[in-house]
Amino acid sequence: MERQMLRAAMEQLKRKGYLQECNVEVDPKFELGAVLKHYKNEVPILFNKVKGSKMPVVGALFGERSIYYEMLATTHEERVFKLMDAIANPKPTRVLNKGPVMENIITRNIDLQKMFPIPTFHEKDSSSYITAGLVVLKDPETGQSHVSVRRLQVNKGNEISILVASPLATRQFLDMEKQNKPLEVAIVLGYDYSLLLASQISSEVYGVDKYEVDSALRGEPIELVKCHSIDVEVPAYSEIVLEGIMPPNKREIEGPFGELMGYYGAVGPHPIVEVKTVMHRNNPIFQTAFPCREEHLSNGLVREIELYSSVKGLVDVNDVNVTVAGGCRFHAFVSINKKTEGDGKSAIIGALASSKDVKHVVIVDNDVDIFDPTDIEWAIATRMQASKDLVIIPGALGSGLEPSHTVKGVTDKVGIDATKPLGELATRFEKAIIPGYENIDISKYLPGFKLK
Ligand SMILES: Cc1cc2nc3c(=O)[nH]c(=O)nc-3n(C[C@H](O)[C@H](O)[C@H](O)COP(=O)(O)O)c2cc1C
Known about the structure:
Layout: H1 5-15, E1 20-22, H2 31-38, E2 45-47, E3 57-59, H3 65-71, H4 79-88, E4 94-95, E5 104-106, H5 112-115, E6 129-130, E7 134-138, E8 145-149, E9 152-156, E10 159-162, H6 167-178, E11 183-189, H7 193-199, H8 203-206, H9 210-218, E12 223-226, E13 233-235, E14 240-246, E15 251-254, E16 268-280, E17 286-287, H10 296-312, E18 317-322, E19 331-336, H11 343-353, E20 360-365, H12 373-383, H13 386-389, E21 390-397, E22 410-417
Parallel strand pairs: 1-2, 3-17, 4-12, 19-20, 20-22
Antiparallel strand pairs: 2-3, 5-16, 6-9, 7-8, 7-11, 9-10, 10-16, 11-14, 12-13, 14-16, 15-16, 18-19, 21-22
Helix pairs in contact: 4-9, 4-10, 7-9, 10-11
Flavin mononucleotide binds at residues 146, 148-151, 163-166, 168-169, 200-204, 289, 295-296, 298-299.
GO molecular function: carboxy-lyase activity
InterPro entries: UbiD (IPR002830), UbiD-like_C (IPR049381), UbiD-like_N (IPR049383), UbiD_Rift_dom (IPR048304)
Family: Belongs to the UbiD family.
């Protein structure tokens, strides 16, 4: 029985019937990503035959909300509170002397492209990319582990370019660079739902050790081992670990890369990682993720706790959705239990204040399903008057990760209050319902027929 990380998750997914296996040969260049994309990165697929490699590749594990909840042993209703609790009450980790990831340790002739079936996803991508790599750094002062997903461009041999956009990791690298010292870094492939979710918490905002948040989330200590050549801990049950250094004063051009919103992001000089040691399990499974969508759901789940808390301070929140189509950061749909006139506008203020990245928000009543875009559209069509329900804030700080800005990072914000009025006017907005509709056994009327 596998205990933690990818194989344990895959065993569970297989038992539940969620994991599909592809036994037709696929090319890691474009073809593998095309299959993942075709299924919207929502269907976990194990590719058993990958051209040019003996190693299987697994992808699209993390793109479906309901699977995510099940694998975290939570529910849609409980998700926000489970994560809040884990952040507020991190739990200790367990460091082992040995772990399966140490079964093979390679320190010479490292050529990543030859060793691993690393996919290339889009036409103009500069190279093959490791898209599901958890980058682990250790804070020299606090000893805390910082774990986060970063895109990794495979350059040549043992060299990778790394794009680090977060303040804490950048500061750590620049501090070392000032001292002309390298920063030690491990890249982990073969993790699970809990660790990915913990990795998406901002170090800057919460200042927690993400391994400890993971331990709280999974309900048992995450089991770690020390790396072979650097002072960093990695999950004992991970599949592959690349250990290396980010040397000072060295940059390579990174990109183009088809990224978050489906565009090619900026190309520029970025730090590199020189991989010194590769550790891997026997018969390792290479983990990948189609860029733009699937793993961002985990990022959105963290943003939902921030959205919930921010709106909760002002009005009675029913539910929140940081949408996948909005890159799990630009769009927020919020349903509220409206108590007083003005709640809709207050919720707009709370939602826009939850993160600088939120750009458009829609506030609706609790009779609207915020996970159904047609229900949202219905609410906007029937409960909104632009002259009083549309709020526009020009030129606020936003995220540079979408290309519509005139100035990088500066963006207009929009709030739509699509809640119905209270009091007498509310009767005009009563939804027409069919009694017993929810409980009808529809299969008996047109046996065998399934709506597409
Ligand atoms: C699939 C995926 C890819 C990501 N790629 C990057 C990246 O290339 N660079 C980056 O700085 N952050 C990237 N992120 C975001 C970070 O992983 C995330 O913001 C994390 O919380 C940062 O943690 P930190 O605040 O401890 O640095 C990515 C997130 C996901 C889910």
